[in-house]
Amino acid sequence: MSSSHPVQVIAVTGGKGGVGKSNVSINLSVSLANMGRRVALLDADLGLANIDVLLGLRPNRNLENVLAGECSLMDIMLTGPGGIRIIPASSGTQKMTMLGSMEHAGLIHAFSEISHQIDVLVIDTAAGISDSVVSFVRASQEVLVVVCDEPSSITDAYALIKLLSKEYDVDRFRVVANMTRSPQEGKNLFNKLNQVTDRFLDVTLQYVGSVPFDESVRKAVQRQKAVVELFPSCKAAIAIKNIAETVDRWPLPSSPRGHLEFFVERLVQGVSGQQ
């Protein structure tokens, strides 16, 4: 099961809910697609999926049906804004968060089928630091941590970084400040987090940019659209496009980490180790 086509796997996470992680995932994916990358967006909130809701899509089947052997990953993929492919998870299904070895094998096979069709896999993780979140993040090549200017966001982001660093040897994190009131606030937010990690952890944090608070985002959510498509010239959309340009310059992973199968095998090993 080998593929020579490198796929960049980016986990978008945040430690806590309410920081705008799913919005960043969607709009980053659309922006990368608009730049010519073939993008798949995996809704990895396996219990409370919401990407389809945010975009007004109605999947008939989801990842649970793939794992049950009822259909292929290609069968469940939805086409979203900008031509991104969306892999919907199930909502409100507890057993999706407790996969056995047969489902793991099915997951590996399912992803190997699509590896030649995509350049970037963006993973929108659940909130918190559950086993599922940790598994997806540690299997990814890039970890994008979304924070906003409130104490619990910084505390929870630090807790996630600490866990991944100490338990799983993840040593590099990219940071996006969301819903900021000024570019300086975003930098200050990053510096706060960086100072704490510098003191206590052996990790590298890299600031990717900030997304300003913008009423257009709320309006886009209400209309179940991506803000970069509905209001392309608004402040938030421009900021996300700038972040996408930075992401586009990140080096492609080298073999074997660049293979999508490697990501899934590592994901499965992580989950198996926690059972």
TrEMBL record:
Tell me one GO molecular function of this protein. ATP hydrolysis activity
Enumerate the UniProt keywords alphabetically: ATP-binding, Nucleotide-binding
GO cellular component terms given for this protein? cytoplasmic side of plasma membrane; cytosol
- Spell out the Pfam families in the cross-references: ParA (PF10609)
Which CDD domains does the record associate with it? FlhG-like (cd02038)
Please list the GO biological process terms of this entry.
negative regulation of cell division
InterPro entries, A to Z: FlhG (IPR033875), MinD_FleN (IPR025501), P-loop_NTPase (IPR027417), ParA/MinD_ATPase (IPR050625), YlxH/NBP35 (IPR033756)
Read off the Gene3D superfamilies from this record.
P-loop containing nucleotide triphosphate hydrolases (3.40.50.300)
* Protein's name in the database: Cobyrinic acid a,c-diamide synthase
Name its species.
marine gamma proteobacterium HTCC2143
